[in-house]
Specification:
Blueprint lengths: L1 H16 L8 E8 L7 E8 H5 L15 E8 L12
Antiparallel strand pairs: 1-2, 1-3
């Protein structure tokens, strides 16, 4: 009985220490604008990775001008102001 109670207590302690889901993580959606390759990566928008992966599918959370870019990347950030370094 003591082993069972100890196991339950241990599992409860481990479960309570796990990280909470903080919701969708934001990041910088960047790409190289077609015709402006010499400018390097430019900011499309600050969004979740799911929205970035939606590409130009507006119904899934994407953006219509996604196709105007190539070599897309998404970089997680703690604050969208960190994406300002990609504004051109």
């Amino acid at each position: 009985m003591k082993k069972t109670l100890f196991t339950i207590f241990l599992l409860a302690a481990i479960w309570s220490c796990s990280e909470e889901d903080k919701g969708p993580q934001m990041g910088c959606s960047i790409g190289i604008r077609v015709g402006e390759e010499d400018l390097g990566y430019q900011l499309l928008r600050c969004c979740t990775n799911e929205q970035h992966l939606a590409g130009n599918n507006v119904q899934a959370g994407g953006i219509s001008y996604f196709a105007n870019y190539k070599q897309w990347k998404w970089e997680a950030v703690s604050d969208c102001s960190a994406c300002d370094k990609y504004k051109k």
